[in-house]
Amino acid sequence: MAKRKRRNAGQTDTNTRGKRKRCVIHGDEFTTPDGLVLPMKLKKYWNRRHDFFWRFDEGIQIDEVGWYSVTPEVIAHDTAERIAQLYNKPGDKQYGRICVVDAFCGVGGNAIKFAEWCEHVVAIDIDPVRLSMAKYNAELYG
After folding, report:
1. What are phi and psi of 50, to 5 degrees?
2. How far apart are CA 85 and CA 139, in angstroms?
3. Which of 21, 42, 51, 76 could form a cystine bridge with 71, CB 3.0-4.6 A?
4. What is the pLDDT of residues 39-66, one digit of tens each?
5. Using CA atoms, how far apart are residues 84 and 106, in angstroms rounded to an integer?
6. Which pLDDT does position 86 carry in this prediction?
7. Angle subtended at Cα 103 by Cα 131 and Cα 50, rounded to the nearest 5 degrees
8. Mean local confidence (pLDDT), 17-43
9. Residue 113, pLDDT score
10. Whole-angstrom Cα distance, residue 25 to residue 126?
11. Who's near 30: CB < 8 A, 6+ residues apart?
C-alpha cells in the first residue's frame, strides 16, 4: 500500500465557520491562526474547540488543564437539562428554581449550561486562575 503524501507539510487546515485558516506546525508546538502557540498534544482539542464552546471565537479563556477537562457543550447541555427535569416537573410553579453546585468547575463548561436551566449555580474550583476564567466565560454567555 502506497503512503499518502501529506499536503502542505508543516501546516494543517482548520475550518473556522466556513473560513479556511491555517495552523503552522513547528517542532512540538503549533501556532493557531490567532497567533497562539500551543503544544502539539493539544492540537486535537484545538480542532474541536467549537464542540467545547460554540462561542470560542468571542474570547473564551482556557488553560492547558481546561482543554483536557472541559465537557463538550452538547453533553453539558444535556446533563443540565436532565438534572433540571429530575427535580422539577414542567408546569410547576417552581420550575427551574433549583441550586446546583459545580464543585470542580474548571473553566466553566458545565456551570454555564447549568445556569441556562437552574436559578442558582455555585461554581467552585481549587485554582483561582481557572475560577476567574470560568467567571469570564460565563459572562460571555450572558
Report:
1. -80, -15
2. 25
3. 76
4. 888 888 888 888 899 898 898 999 989 9
5. 21
6. 84
7. 60
8. 78
9. 94
10. 33
11. 12, 23, 24, 37, 38, 40, 43, 46
Confidence of residue 133 (pLDDT cuts 50, 70, 90): very high
CB count, 10 Å around CB of 63?
Answer: 14
Query: How much is the pTM?
Result: 0.74
> Tell me, what amino acid is at 48?
R
Q: Residue for cell digits 484545538?
A: 46
Contacts of 115 (CB under 8 A, 6+ apart): 121, 138, 141
Q: Which residue is it, cell 501556532?
A: 31
pLDDT of residue 95: 60
Query: Longest C-alpha distance within the chain, in Å?
Result: 66
Phi, psi of 75 (to 5 degrees): -70, -40
Rounded to an integer, what distance in angstroms lies between the CA atom of residue 138 and that of residue 37? 24
105 within 8 A of 76, measured Cβ to Cβ: no
Distance CA 112, CA 90 (A): 21
Contact 65, 102 (CB under 8 A): no
At residue 128, the 3 state secondary structure works out as helix
Please state, in angstroms and rounded to a whole number, the distance separating the CA atoms of residues 33 and 57.
11
